[in-house]
């Protein structure tokens, strides 16, 4: 098996480097438990690899095997993918690869901040509280603004949006919208749903902002785990042609 072969090659490299203490970390549950003799092995091919691993383990003063979830083993998967993409003509020497680990991604999962520093519902909230229109508003804009304000309800300092079924959705600013996206999509109980489902989930939880759907779709598109472990498209690249039978009641 490929996992056993990779483990054997890695242990042999450490033996050549005269390393006496080793911690083997992997996401292949079967290999870890079989080497630790927690699971039995009956396959002949696996038994040969297992005996080879145990024989190499005797050359260390201390060696441990630890299993980690696949989601936490992204670094080794990235190195394996990188090594399979690079072809070296001179096999006697390979240039070292410098890997820099950053504390955070180059992009941020956030909703765009308001350009003027105010909340997107600032004018609506001010109109419901003091009946004041935005500055330099025309008569047509004031009429449209009154129609828009009828869909909102102000309770002390909290602004709500009325729904068609007479429900209330609390309006949130950019900072709280970012926190909701993080918690509902990838939080403790976040199932990493798609963008449209994420927006509907936030609405069902009782929150709303004006660009909730576009922000949810953009957030999912930038989610690192969704891009790696998302479902692959199984649709054929070309349209399939249906072949009819050459004559009636014929079968292949």
Beta-strand content estimate: 5-15%
Fill in the CATH topology of the domain at 1-68: Nucleotidyltransferase, domain 5
How much helicity do the residues have? 40-55%
Q: CATH superfamily membership of the domain at 1-68, which one?
A: Ribonuclease H-like superfamily/Ribonuclease H
Q: Tell me the total number of β-strands.
A: 6
Pfam family, one: Integrase_H2C2
Domain Integrase zinc-binding: 173-228
InterPro entries: Integrase_H2C2, RNaseH-like_sf, RNaseH_domain, RNaseH_sf
Domain RNase H type-1: 1-81
Short description:
This protein has 252 residues and is an alpha/beta fold. It has 10 helices and 6 strands, in the order αβααβαααβββααβαα.
Descriptive notes:
- This protein has ten helices and six strands, in the order αβααβαααβββααβαα.
- It is an alpha/beta fold and 252 residues long.
- Among the domains are: 1-68, Ribonuclease H-like superfamily/Ribonuclease H (Nucleotidyltransferase, domain 5, 2-Layer Sandwich); 172-230.
- The strands form two sheets. It has a four-stranded mixed β-sheet. Strands 1-2 form a two-stranded parallel sheet.
- The longest helix is centred in the N-terminal third of the chain and has 15 residues, at 2-16.
- InterPro entries: Integrase_H2C2 (IPR041588), RNaseH-like_sf (IPR012337), RNaseH_domain (IPR002156), RNaseH_sf (IPR036397).
- Residues 1-81 form the RNase H type-1 domain.
